Amino acid sequence: MNIVLGISGGIAAYKTPDLVRRLRERGADVQIVLTRSAEEFVTETALQAVSGNPVRSNLWDKEAEASMSHIELARWADLVLIAPATAEILSRLAGGSAPDLLSTLCLATEAPIVIAPAMNHVMWSNPAVQANRETLEARGCRILGPGVGSQACGETGAGRMLEPHDIADAVIDVTASGSLSGKSVLITAGPTREAIDPVRYVTNRSSGKMGYALARAARLAGARVTLVSGPVHLPPPANVEFVSVTTAQEMHDACVQRAGDVDLFIAAAAVADYRPANVADEKIKKQGDTMTVEMVRTPDVLAAVAGLKDGPIAIGFAAETQNLKTNAMAKFDGKKLDMIIANRVGEGRGFDADSNSVEVYWKGGEQHFDDMPKQNLAKELVELIAREFADAS
Ligand code: PMT
């Protein structure tokens, strides 16, 4: 799991090297963002040594931005943890202001945000601070603690940052309690490539964005995810088993081999329906004004998995330029699916677009999803799939 640890300026910041160590012991990759005042309490050198990653504190650091921009860091995170969180950072997050790297990153991330406050007990009980806490909780941020006890100022009360091992356990629980926790999901993505000769092939415009977004969303919902991908230009999502394939036959074999061990199968790939009957050993030379390539059917990956005895819940996509519902339902019935996600494609829609709009059909109902970024759509689809099938699989 990729965790961005945001450290703000409280005395409890001295405990954060231990927190980093405990997060890493639990399998997390940790990138650290310090606020300016946090630098008064803990050094970059110590944090860099325990995290194994460069530490960032400045939104305007050109070198750091060049290697991973703050937007990339916001996307990289599976979870953002702020510990310790001061009254100031709570106020910035609640108010949506972004004067520094940490608060900017929090606005730019879609990952869950977990906050471990630490401050004087009178500050913590101040109505302004409590109003900010309520706002953040209402938006889905998870607040850990604070604990009760003696404080650095010599007083006693609620305001101590929870101990590093308790924070690390709670963070792992947040992802383990997702809607697909305990489930395993196999997802296909991207196009396939069918060779004509050593230098030419038949393919399509799939970028893999939809399938990769689904893999990431399923992972964040707590599932064990295997992503079988055709050739695309995207980095594999973090903490996902990644299987790289080229042809429809390879995608078929990779999926059928694994399908018996998973609960859910989601086919987002645009698999070639036909491949050249013969692959020329040498580059085909120009001959005359026309050329005919005989094509033969490829195996249907989705139909093969859906047809397995005791196979997983099978969810397909339908990419249609016309008669969306009729064509999607023909695939739903023909391939014996549990759910079909229908999208209009062509003219810049569906394939290689950053956003998508879909109609989803299953035995118990149907649902429309307005056009939205594929990352967001993937999260909503995963929630729908979990609601309909998490108990059935
Ligand atoms: O990758 P992106 O650029 O983000 O674009 C996303 C997408 C448009 C590719 C995606 O949203 C989508 O619609 N994927 C399915 C594309 C497709 O080939 O649809 P189809 O209607 O031809 O196939 C129906 C279903 O059967 C699909 O789930 C497909 O994965 C599956 N299939 C088809 C043929 C085959 N030989 N094997 C299959 O598994």
Could you provide a short overview of the structure?
By secondary structure, the protein is α/β, with parallel strands linked by helices. It has helices at residues 16-25, 44-51, 62-67, 70-76, 87-95, 101-108, 121-125, 127-138, 164-176, 209-220, 248-259, 301-306, 324-334, 374-389; strands spanning 2-7, 29-34, 55-56, 79-85, 113-117, 142-143, 147-150, 156-160, 184-189, 194-197, 200-202, 224-229, 241-244, 264-267, 274-276, 295-297, 313-320, 339-344, 355-362, 365-373. It contains 14 helices and 20 strands.
Explain what the structure shows.
By secondary structure, this protein is an alpha/beta fold. The chain has 14 helices and 20 strands. It has an eight-stranded mixed beta sheet, sandwiched between helices. Strands 3-2-1-4-5-6 form a six-stranded parallel beta sheet, with helices on both faces. The longest helix is centred in the C-terminal third of the chain and has 16 residues, at 374-389. It is elongated. The model has no long low-confidence stretch (mean pLDDT 94). Ligand PMT is lined by residues 188, 190, 206-211, 248, 267-271, 273, 298, 300-302, 316-319, 331, 343, 345, 350-352. Ligand PMT binds at residues 188, 190, 206-211, 248, 267-271, 273, 298, 300-302, 316-319, 331, 343, 345, 350-352.
